[in-house]
Amino acid sequence: MKQSKMLIPTLRDVPADADIKSHQLLLRAGFMRQTASGVYSYLPLAKKVLQKVEQIVREEMDAINGSELLMPTLQPAELWQETGRWYNYGAELMRIKDRHARDFALGPTHEEVITSLVRDEISSYKKLPLVLYQIQTKFRDEARPRFGLLRGREFIMKDAYSFHSSKESLDEAYNDMVKAYSNIFRRCGLNFRAVIADSGAIGGKNSQEFMVLTDVGEDTIAFSNESDFAANVEMAPVHVQYEKSNEELATLEKIETKNQKTIEEISRFLNVAKEKCLKSLLFKVDEKYVLVVVRGDHEVNDIKVKNLLDAKSVELASSEETLNILKAEVGSVGPIGLTEEVDIIADYAVQSVVNGVCGANETDYHYTGVNIGRDFQPSQIADLRFIQEGDPSPDGKGTIQFAEGIEVGHVFKLGTVYSESMKATYLDENGKSQPMIMGCYGIGVSRTVAAIVEQHHDENGIIWPVSVTPFEVHLIPINMKTEAQKELADQIYNKLNRESVSVLYDDRNERPGVKFADSDLFGFPIRITVGKKAEEGIVELKLRKSGETLEVAIDNIVDVIK
Ligand code: ATP
Ligand code: MG
Ligand code: MG
Ligand code: MG
């Protein structure tokens, strides 16, 4: 492509409202422009990067037997009403009306559409499993769109959905997906880490996020310095799951914990009634971890407690003050702040969970003097939000460290949540109707582009990994008006095109300083400068990443590049 024919509006100055490097550089290098808050036009260079990333995604999805389809952005409210998400998705769901005043949503995700599609088309176990994916524009009316492509209100996502007749089949597809995601992000040149994510009410190791490690990430990852344990700290705390039999548990001291009334009693135990608890929150008070278990699907209470903890006031408060705050914030029942919503507040254990108190396998009973690791193996982790650097890792190996991350991908075992509410069933081998078991898997394609820039730049501009670069070569004659230079540049341009090396030819009559500054901003891997030695058929080749230069004769140029 000839640069004079393309729209690449570069900027010399850092745009005022762009706080992070990827946002600044993508604007400065002329890759994109904002159209509205959180809404961007991808200019020609960005479009090329998107296509490369999408191609990598397609190859890896196809390799695990995913088939691509394209579903509508415009989604009728009725589908969202079936799952109830029309009512509880909140303000992030972009809602519009058609001319007949019928409600629609602009899809933020496609579980409803795909479940309705598959329910209508698949009726037998013989057609399962099925993995479908699309690459498409999504809409989310984010409360705080920011950081350019990292958090847009309109953005590009690859979303995949899988349908199964058994848990084993779902596990298989999920594991394939995890591998495919690793391949994708590796091929995009990213330094990333798969971390355990909050899987909400489903619990367990049923959800992982792919985090790109940078210092601008909106997520915080806690990881062990000695094992592959890594989790998003926003992860809901999960109660300890017991791997001891009831007989073994009988050797521990058991106490009844029903209707606890005093702070002393409360602070002696922890109730982890697992069937009922939606979320619990662990925080530190006076060197002790205090666990709040919020029961039932009280989303509202959960948010209240969260806000409370985010305010940090609780962290500094004594146990009693904490109770008072909770009492004031969440409700007021009973003398010690116990409410129906905040069911139990307990002193979890001093520091690293030694001689702590654990919820029982039996409702309303707890064990005291419990040592995690000795008496129970925690198969899931506690709330990490209040764990500090250097604390023991929940898997017992090493200590906790922190890193910032950008969530570029998310894989999730859904189970039958959607198939049950939307009645997506199939007939099994025995002719019996069963809800389909589902998984969903997302990649932020446009966010990935920004994440790549976050990890690949220097003070002069972007440094694209070869796999996703808009062009492999930037060809720059220093002076287009010097006949020898123009001629040699033309010759190289044609040659590279013939060899299918993608090249951007800076055929503008600009000063060399301007051309080089632009070139560094764009960040293609190789720059070929045609200058004084043009008459001898010699050009300078410079690697963007290392700054290494070498002189190459025109006849060798293709070999050197390839
Ligand atoms: P976040 O926690 O950052 O809000 P999410 O968990 O809401 O993301 P998912 O529903 O898991 O996002 O969507 C799948 C992927 O889509 C995410 O992993 C992320 O890469 C991307 N994504 C989500 N929201 C945005 C956004 N506002 N802008 C760009 N990409 C996004
Ligand atoms: Mg979100
Ligand atoms: Mg998230
Ligand atoms: Mg997510």
TrEMBL record:
It holds the Pfam family HGTP_anticodon. InterPro entries: aa-tRNA-synt_IIb, aa-tRNA-synth_II, aa-tRNA-synth_II/BPL/LPL, Anticodon-bd, Anticodon-bd_dom_sf, Pro-tRNA-ligase_IIa, Pro-tRNA-synth_IIa_bac-type, Pro-tRNA-Synthase_IIa_type1. Homodimer. Its EC number is 6.1.1.15. The lineage of its organism: Bacteria, Bacillati, Bacillota, Bacilli, Bacillales. Transmembrane segments: none annotated. This is Proline--tRNA ligase. PROSITE patterns: AA_TRNA_LIGASE_II. Catalyzes the attachment of proline to tRNA(Pro) in a two-step reaction: proline is first activated by ATP to form Pro-AMP and then transferred to the acceptor end of tRNA(Pro). As ProRS can inadvertently accommodate and process non-cognate amino acids such as alanine and cysteine, to avoid such errors it has two additional distinct editing activities against alanine. One activity is designated as 'pretransfer' editing and involves the tRNA(Pro)-independent hydrolysis of activated Ala-AMP. The gene is proS.
